Amino acid sequence: MDDLLQEFIAETQETLEALAGEVVAWEADPSDRDRLDAIFRFFHTVKGSCGFLNLPRFERLSHAAEDVLSDLRSGQRSPDPATVNAVLGVMDRIGELAEAVAIGAALPDENDDLLIGALSADAHSNSVPETDAVAAPAPEQRVRQGGAQAVPRTIRLPLSLIDQLMNGVSDMVLARNELSRQLRERSGDPELESAFERLSTCVADMRDAISKTRMQRVDRLFTAIPRMVRDLGRELGKRIDLTLEGGDVEMDREMVEMVVDPLTHIVRNSIDHGIETPERRRALGKPEVGMLKLEARQSGNQIVIEVSDDGQGIDTQRLVEKAVLAETLTRDAANRMSEAERLELIFHPGLSTAQQITAISGRGVGMDVVRANVERIGGVISLDNQPGRGLRIILRVPLTLTIIPGLIVRAGGLHFAMPRAAVVEILHDNNAMLRIAEVAGAKIATIRSVRHSMVDLEDVLGMEKLPQSGPRSIMVVRSGTGVPFAMGVAAVENHEELVIRPASPLIMASGVYAGMTLPDNGKPMLLLDAAGLANAADLPNVADDCAQRHIEEDEMNAAAVEMIPALRFEELSGERRLIQLSVIERVEDIDTASFGRSGSRAFVRLDGGLVPVVNGVHSFGAATVSALRIRDGAREACYPVAAVLDIIDMPLVPDMVAMHGVLSGVSVIEGEHLEVINPFALFAGLPGESVPEQARGRCVLADGDDGWTREILAPLLRQAGHEVVLGLPAGEPVDPLDVVLSSGPDLSQAAEILGCRVVHLRASPRPSGPQDGSIYRYDQDALMAAIAGVGR
Fold it and tell me: Which of the residues 54, 270, 342, 729 could staple to 274 if both were Cys, CB 3.0 to 4.6 A apart?
């Protein structure tokens, strides 16, 4: 019986969640017979199960609601607002009773007769007419899920079992990673590696399958929204058109539970602060019905949830005035703040735009808690404010809490993990774009003229900073206060997909850790909490920081970073890079048939000549290819690219200098990390130009009738730019600058007679003895050196 009772309670609670929105949608459209039938079936099912399970209060309530809905289905009654309110009241009471049974608590001692009496038609006859009531019409709900879908076959499992399965497969992933590490350290065995690959594939498939059991549709987030919008709209006298999109998107069950409270708070704020009353909207020339839209979508490994309204937006001037009155912001600092910084004040504790304190809002406990809760789970919240026209709030949260991308950092000789979503930028402390200074004992890191508070992780955790030979890494980290801060660590060593587990209560109580993880090396690591680190370091908040940052920026205007024009382009291999605009002569499309290769050198036919190609010849997929024609003043080269994007300004010195190959480093442009081409290395890699020799003599081939001399040696010397004479000239003097080459008899003794130098070529690779001054005839380098030596 206990199992049956638990299953009944679980089904009842799930159905109630789904029906909360259905009742509101049915009230907006009373002609929707499908929704009316679904609500009727719920009460009919509850009534039928209660008699068997001996739940009399459930039975009385559901029976009374069933009778009223039966009359509505037959047309004997109409679904007026009072009837809908009574049905919702009965549903709420059944939900309270189900919750009490589920947790084993005493059933609430309420007077059910009042709820049942409110369902009768007589109870509504003396009610105030709807035209005189203050309550506004219910919101219209539009849900877009691509039409009706077949209901899949399902079974119900305890959540504890799902969590146990997930923990087990997480342990398998960690064990696989450890086995992989040990196999890499040992000599390879093809059969063993093949077996491991099969095991790894099976573990990955199992992890993905079990991960899906934790997934829930975002509908779970949306179920309570229509009812809340309806009730708040009636309470505040506002008319609201509610739109829900993306309910079929799936996310981790635990993540759904973590997002419910922030989303609820945001929706309540939109209704209370944002959307105006019908009278106010008429005066502003807006439709009387306000628009509220919730949209969910998946973007990579994130879920993006947007809440937008067409209300009045956020009055940033009122925020500033309240911050000044609360003495959290000075008037001078307020005057220096930009509009974006004023908007950030909405996340400052204790500030609210409400004119007066109500049961809904105005107590200053709000968006700061929302941001803290969102960032605690690795998410980000942003605002798009249009004063007078509305507000859009964007939440970006991870798809799952169990496996997240993370960075492995080293500090004090230990390793820690940091969620990758919390890190904005990483650079070394020897970067030319970084300046670290101490002011009154506090560290300040200035990166590209932007000032950040800075802490060292070792100092926050009370660890010793060990000496090291290389540069330290500086991470720009998002904090819970809305102001990014710089954090120094010994090194950022790796990035991995991390399996997150809760840490012990004693560790979590410190406030600087968000859990623990076990990476590939098998050594447990603690996961750092960015917001907790900022609080532990007592970093300044938005109001404190903005004024000082503007002062620092004013002082640095004279020492602004020198910028130069650059071309942003896409390589044929897909990378997006920068090259300074001054070395580009022009950009043009070139026929791919004009490209060729000779040995390791690539070239292209341009303007009747051959021009070297600096990045090799690729397999072009089209008839033409875009190319940069670059010049260093004297020489020209061709640089084929996939696409030319735009012209922008880039720092003369890259943000991160890293000389390797044809690259000089990395610059951050509009939030994008772009590699910078080094023109010096580009032209240095071109083939060297031949230097014409002054008064160079001829190459006289004494054995002009020899086949090898005539067919092999002579063409080689002509290609090298030498004038060739076949045979000793008869009756013609030999110029002292000439060189005589002989592959037959040794003419060294006749050098004085000839009046020039003589080079003797031998057929054997090895000389005949120590005194043999001949050159192997296929030793090209030695041959050319000998000719050049004679020429000099």
Answer: 270
State percent of the chain over pLDDT 90: 10
Q: Which residues pair with 390 in a beta bridge?
A: 386
Q: Are strands 140-144 and 240-245 parallel, antiparallel or unpaired?
A: parallel
**Distance in angstroms (rounded) separating the CA atoms of residues 410 and 473:** 10
User: What is the pLDDT, as a whole number, of residue 397?
Assistant: 82
Q: Which residues contact 142 (CB under 8 A, 6 or more apart)?
A: 241, 242, 243, 244
Cα Dmax for the chain: 141
Q: Which distant-in-sequence residues (6+ apart) come within 8 Å of 322 by Cβ?
A: 351, 352, 353
Quote the strand ranges of 518-662, DSSP E.
Answer: 525-528, 563-570, 576-580, 584-591, 595-598, 601-606, 609-612, 624-631, 636-641, 643-651, 656-660
pLDDT-derived band at 447 (thresholds 50, 70, 90) equals confident
The residue behind tokens 């949608």 is 25
DSSP structure class, residue 592: G
d(CA 582, CA 128): 80
670 has pLDDT over 80:
no
Residues 6 or more apart whose CB falls under 8 angstroms from that of 270 comprise 292, 307, 309, 311, 391, 393
The tokens for 556 are: 């640095």
Burial class from Cβ neighbours inside 10 Å (0-12, 13-18, 19+) for residue 130 reads exposed
What is the rounded average pLDDT of the residues 117-130? 58
Instruction: Please give the order of strands across the beta sheet that includes 724-726.
Output: 724-726, 699-701, 739-742, 757-762, 775-776
Note the residue count of the chain: 792
Reading the block at residue 630, the tokens are 């670059």
Point out which residues pair with 419 in neighbouring strands: 406
Q: Rounded to whole angstroms, what are the CA distances from 23 to 32, 48, 94, 131, 788? A: 11, 21, 15, 22, 98
The pTM (predicted TM-score) of the whole model is 0.50
Helices 33-53 and 56-74, packing angle to 10 deg: 150
What Å distances lie between residue 652 and 677, 720, 791, CA to CA? Answer: 12, 42, 46
DSSP letter assigned to residue 689:
P
